[in-house]
Write a structure and sequence with these properties.
Blueprint: H1 7-24, H2 28-33, H3 36-52, H4 71-81, H5 87-90, H6 97-107, H7 110-121, E1 127-130, E2 147-151, E3 154-165, E4 172-178, E5 189-195, E6 201-206, E7 214-215, E8 218-231, E9 235-236, H8 242-278, E10 280-282, E11 285-286, H9 291-321, H10 327-352, H11 354-357, H12 363-369, H13 380-393
Parallel strand pairs: 1-4
Antiparallel strand pairs: 2-3, 3-8, 4-5, 5-9, 6-8, 7-8, 10-11
Helix pairs in contact: 1-4, 4-8, 4-9, 6-7, 6-8, 8-9, 8-10, 9-10, 10-12, 10-13
Bound molecules: flavin-adenine dinucleotide.
Flavin-adenine dinucleotide binds at residues 96, 129-132, 137-139, 163-165, 220, 372, 375-376, 379, 381-382, 385.
Amino acid sequence: MDFTVSEKAQTIVEMINEFVGKELVPLEPEFSKRPFVELLPVLQEKRRMVKQMELWAPPHPPEYGGMGLDLVEFALVSEALGGTPLGHYVFGCQAPDAGNIEILHLYGTEEQKEKYLRPLVNGDIRSCFSMTEVDMPGSNPVMLDTAAVKDGDHYVINGHKWYTSSADGARFAIVMAVTNPEAPPYLRASMFIVPTDTSGFNLVRNISIMGHEGSDWASHAEILYQSCRVPKENLLGGEGQGFVMAQERLGPGRIHHCMRWIGICNRVFALMCSRAQKRVIAPDRMLSSRQIVQAWIAECAADIQAARLMVLHAAWKMQSLGTKAARHEISMIKFFAANVLQKVLDRALQVHGGLGMSDDTLISFYYRMERAARIYDGVDEVHKVSLARRILSEYEGKTVR
Ligand SMILES: Cc1cc2nc3c(=O)[nH]c(=O)nc-3n(C[C@H](O)[C@H](O)[C@H](O)COP(=O)(O)OP(=O)(O)OC[C@H]3O[C@@H](n4cnc5c(N)ncnc54)[C@H](O)[C@@H]3O)c2cc1C
């Protein structure tokens, strides 16, 4: 088994690490204190620098201005970018745009690609993905209330969504709505491109998340679709293809997220070790001299390593054998890596004591915002249950000695 990282990936990761340390880490105190929207001018400048370095949009198609990295290469890049909350945004590969780019690239018509995909990859506009509903369980996505009804050359969309991340300031939403209510559950829904200036697209509010409303890209909106009328050309893929496309969107997205979480783990793990080595807790004694802290450090190091190897292996399997062959691995990494992230964040915060609770380090920001890792893109429990069912089905009727 060869764990060598290609020279190309190694060089890109080194360039990113240098840029993150020099250009983005110094911006973090501002990021923690000020609304995201106020940072846009300086971030725009950093984005220009990234484009000049030819590191823009690493996973996206080269014919639309991306670098076209493969999944394993991008996994390593996503880890490096995860070392700062600004990384993915400044390098043009942030969620939810990254997933929308994938869908548009795979299923968009030529016209949709020119109108929406090209400016999206270029970072001229942003988008959002609107699936989860206020009154329906997101964990069972076939239960959707939002409907799109055909009316001549248009569809008319009505529904109540929330947690549409980054809707504030987005140019368009990709909206999941039921078009074929009588079809089998997984063939009922379709996706639509809905420009956010369409009459009937009503952004009710940015939801306050653990005390923070956020703004612009760093926000999560509640949206009412009220007789929102879009031309039939805005249907993405075919009628009833919504869930097939959603699956397509989520597969690579899980690799991106999990490796971003590993990047966060690396960052807070370094903070934890450095604090333990510096904090005097008794005359001539550092916090790092305590065995309980040593045990936490050893456990976190092993957990991060395990999660990292699992995710890289899943990326390799998806890339070489396809998404279907990697179903087990994709479910496993989603809940495993999310829980490693929670554990490492919690330990790092504890080691920092009162400092950990303050906003003087990044730990409290990550602790607050990344709790959601166990909820979005499939809640822990659903991933565990579906993985267990698939494993158990392999034993059905078998006698094991
Ligand atoms: C920060 C954040 C960003 C998000 N961004 C987006 C976005 O951009 N677009 C979008 O459409 N959605 C987004 N979501 C929504 C997310 O996908 C849903 O919250 C998620 O699918 C869970 O749905 P729900 O909130 O309706 O929880 P519910 O379905 O009500 O589930 C509640 C809880 O029930 C338990 N549960 C559910 N099913 C089972 C089961 N089978 N067995 C055992 N226990 C179970 C789980 O513990 C779960 O957490 C985001 C959410 C968050 C928190």
